[in-house]
Task: structure prediction
Amino acid sequence: MQSLVNSCRTLDTLTELDLDGLPRRSRGLAQVMLQSLRVVYVTPAETREAGYLELDHFGSSIRGFSSHYDLIGVAQRWLRDLLWDYLAHQLRTPGSPRTRSSYDDTRRACLELSAFLEVSAEGGGRAPALLQADHVHRFLADQRHRARNQLPSLVVRLKSGEPSTVTATTSHFILSHARKIMRWGLESGEADRSGLNREFVIAFPPMGIGPHRTRSPFTDEVARALAAEENLQRFADEHDAGDRGLRDIWETIIVTGRRASEVLNLKLDCVGRYNKLPMLWHDQTKVGNYDQAIRIPEYTHQRIRDRQRKTLVRFEGRFGRPATAAERARMALFPAPKHNPGFERSVSYGWYGAAFHDWVSKLDLGSCVTHQARHTLATKLLTNGAGLHHIKRFLGQVSNRMAEHYAKVAVSEVEDVLQHVWVAGPGAARPGEMLSTGTAPLDRRQAEALALDLTRRSTPAEGGLCTFQPVVDGGACPWNLNCHSCDKFVMSGADLLYWRRKREQWMSIAERAPDDATADYLHQVFEPTARAIDGLEKALAGLGLLEDALALDLRRPQDYFHRMWSTAFRATDLADAAASDQNAYGDEDTADDEKGYA
Result:
């Protein structure tokens, strides 16, 4: 601070300060002061003239961004102004991107186009009226040539100073964002105001869907190696000498399936017990869900508790006093070791990612990344009966499309999922009421870990499941197996086709009734069953499973090969046998019913 004051004694304004001549820490202080002053004393129009954006002018706070966003690398003034106007429009839009990738991709597209025009267009591309469609075609060919032959970028440099390599993915992003900004300029009129040739604007072709590679789950061998106690201890001993929580981070990612950034940025008070269940609270900032909770195992809960104690001990060792309640609320569970006076900043993903990469390389497991743990958990959930909508909600994904690729490695059949969609049967007080879908909203402090209720016990019955405990345990039914009139009977999604056939049968019987009174009576008798069927259809439609349920002819297609289905009897013989004995159900129409079902 004193060094900064001494350097400013002979200056009229802080903007005249030579930052390069200051010590490192004094330079950092001056940069923070200048950044705050720029927002106050420089207008947006002046930043456009100077070639940069101040995000604070737009009231935006983007993760990973400082307020100052430099655009000076774009050499052509018309292109730099177009880029400034486009980004300003994005920042003023209520639904503007929340992360920096969209802004960086647009800026990189303009930087690549600017560098190409600088060397291939007349006058360096600074006269927009002289640009033609041929310049665009050559730019496209140059980008594709660089991607195909793994050539370096024209402008982008790595942290080491070496040029970045152009790939098929980066080339697609560059060309797509170049087309996007040109089309926006055409629609908004900015391209006409800058004098840009229309042929140049419309020459950028639509790029379609670019190359998309999804991460595969860990194989069983790799998963066992990455979860082995010996390897985990090696991870902590060799790569985390300061005990910053590398192993705790990785184990939490494995168990919860969270994104790495969501675990790295956990707050100190992120776990608790609710209804005797351990819960983990975290922020799903990528999808805009803040303060979300999932259930975690006791083992993970205990590891996080131990990490909390270590962080508090480290805080007390640095400041010589325990942390206050207000400080605890702001503290990170995995605080960064440097430039972090309040323990509010978490360790970086770069530090964690480098350590994980070195660890996996020494284990000789091939190419492995942290995000594959998320895919592995998703496929495990799907294998054990969870639907894609459950996976989407549990993992915090934007859409069902993001979860669909997990289905390619799942071994569970769709009927396994349908059998967990239960509605109340015809004998219930409210037929068709959903019982086990997990779709009802819960209280904030009762956030679910899994949306499926797999703990209820049941036994198969005709067209559904019986939940009466004595019968489930093997006892006799006190209602003489009159399931369809019993409130303990529930219908699953796998039974929809059976009940649709039942409805058609009852409607056919009612149509052939001798008089209207009989037809009305039959409709009245079947009304609770009809409500239950309607409720089951609505439940399945709401979960996106209706078409799958209607595609099933039995609970499992492989049941056709069961010995029971290879033993057949003539329907007439069964009817004759039934007529000779007293019907066990006391229903004279049962023989006709079985005949129709056969």
Observations:
- DSSP finds 27 helices and eleven strands in the chain.
- Residues 437-456, 555-568, 582-598 have pLDDT under 50 and may be disordered.
- The CA atoms of residues 463 and 498 lie 7 Å apart.
